[in-house]
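Board notes, transcribed. Complex of a protein with adenosine-5'-diphosphate.
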Amino acid sequence: MPPPAAQGRKVKRHWLAPLLVVATAALAAHLAGSLLPITAVLAAGLFWELLQSTRLARWLENPAANPPRAAGRWRHLFNRVFHRLHHLEKELRAREMLLEAFQTATAAFPEPVLLLDDKEVIQWYNQAAALHLGLRLKGDRGQFIRHLIRQPAFIAWLDGGLEDLAEIESPLDPAITFRVSCAVLDRHRRLLLFRDISEMQQAEAMRRDFVANVSHELRTPLTVLAGYLETLGEDGALELAPIVQRMRDQSSLMQHLIDDLIELSRLQTQGITGRERQVAMAPLIAQLVERAEELSGGRHTITCDADTQYDLYAAPGDLESAFGNLISNAVRYTPAGGNIAIAWRAGSGGGAFSVHDTGIGIPEKDIPRLTERFYRVAKDRSRASGGSGLGLSIVKHALNAHQATLEIISRPGKGSTFTARFPAHRLRFANRRQSA
Ligand code: ADP
């Protein structure tokens, strides 16, 4: 096709000829003193235009045929329409092929894939979706997805705007769990991808059971050993005393590790452990401060600032364990002479329990990994101070079970602040007499 500027020049030329004819007819009419020549020319022109537009309309009924033959302006118009249609047809065919390839590929997916429009109406789905989600092979297109998959977790995910991931059971087989994610294609379409995570979940459950079983099995022999070590120290030979002491320390470390492993696996399998109730924060914090002083043995300055207006609705054991771990860490990772500040603040935005220390601090790169099992920044120091490497992992799981989050702010050499943030729905007005 000629470039737009050349086309423009051509169009102008096409107008020139009819204008010249009309001007000549007008001149002839003027000279002859009669309207006949100009009327005849205009009538002929009108007839010509009608004829060509009729041909155009007829051709457009079957644009695959060659365009009608014509001259001048109409030939130019027919050619442009012909090329434009040809171009659009090619583009359409390419898109159809792409769509077909996409549908063939996703139809062969072994896992369900679903295309939704912006009104949550199903536009397309593959065979696996029909097989695992209980949809009719083709008959459920055009249906609202929430009428077909009614699980509360899925509905809550739809209501939440399809963010993050949802986990749902297959409506046909409760042993199959799918993790659902959403890919936004454009403003009007989104693709739901279902991934079968049953095997992964089984493997994870097996691993958890294994750790829990081994820990339980080790607990009894270790208690027996620790008991013998206690008596051995009493009337043992003097030269054996340091060896017995070391054995006692190591067995106490192992007992601590096993207790933490059992607690962690309980939190991972059951979520909240024990019954939830209103936990009076004032006595709990007083008890935590006492414990901190005991652990510190007078090496630190410990302060406390607690808002006694609000309590927490929680499982008391989990709360004590999470807060206790944060306090024990502050004591263990703060050199003698440092400060430890315990605080509880609550209001309409929720509650925050924080432990601030002026200890050794944590490098920035380690902060995101601290709640992983056995992740330690200073390995020797952790072991020497009796750490199992599971403390913060327990804190994270205990808080998650209460919809709370752990925030860590730290600078090496300056100190750290660990804050547990609880949502407002977990707060309760304190019972004055109880907390007094
Ligand atoms: P550990 O039993 O080793 O203390 P945790 O899970 O409680 O295990 O903590 C993980 C790691 O985080 C610790 O080994 C330590 O390096 C670091 N850490 C935790 N709390 C503090 C703190 N208050 N100050 C400095 N480092 C800390």
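The chain has a mean pLDDT of 88. The radius of gyration is 40 Å.
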